[in-house]
Amino acid sequence: MNWQAGLAHEIRNPLAAIRGFLQLMRERPDARYLDILMEEVDRINQLTNELLMLAKPQDNIFEEINIVTILRELLPLMRSQANLQAIVIHEDVPSTLPPVYGVKDQLKQVFINIIKNAMEAQPSGGYVDIIANLDHTHIVISIEDGGIGMSEETIAKLGEPFYTTKERGSGLGMMVTYLIVQNHLGDVQVESTIGKGTRFVVSLPY
Ligand code: ADP
Ligand code: MG
Known about the structure:
Blueprint: H1 3-27, H2 32-55, E1 63-65, H3 67-84, E2 87-92, E3 100-102, H4 104-120, E4 126-134, E5 138-145, H5 152-157, H6 173-183, E6 187-193, E7 197-205
Parallel strand pairs: 2-4
Antiparallel strand pairs: 1-3, 4-5, 5-7, 6-7
Helix pairs in contact: 1-2, 2-6, 3-4, 4-6
The structure holds adenosine-5'-diphosphate and magnesium ion.
Adenosine-5'-diphosphate binds next to α4 and α6.
């Protein structure tokens, strides 16, 4: 299935549910249906948000941007979510790192997507370690979790649109992540062991 067809499918399913429940409510109003309606609307909203990042390349303004700044802006929000799940996010990112040339919102999205996955891989708590280093051409950011890990099959399919092992996953997060990093002439590597955890390593040229 090509990916536009997949997207149409992903939108049509919640739409069909919304229509069905609206029809039910017309016949038999019941406030409990509202939660389901809200959930399905949220799902479509999430899908479109994930894709919007890629949809308007003309809006992408490349500028000198510091990875520390990006993390500082997104970590408070991620940490408040992590707290609820008994996950501790450690971060070791020197403020002396040179800036990269990039689109701020896109780079933010890269880290949000990876950290979100790291948290979703640890339903009963754990950690996310974010460590940034410098080599002679790239800033290398490692994001490690102690979660469920991935099978060889999942690693191979990572980044395919709509590939997900989650009941309510979109399967778009990693595709968007890879496309953004490519767009920044960077690279993403992954190492993972089932039952032990996963490490993503994002390299961005500076
Ligand atoms: P989604 O999160 O909606 O499932 P993604 O594209 O973000 O879609 O991820 C695709 C799949 O990759 C996930 O369903 C999961 O199986 C796997 N995955 C990604 N990151 C991790 C991780 N840190 N630990 C375990 N599995 C992961
Ligand atoms: Mg995801």
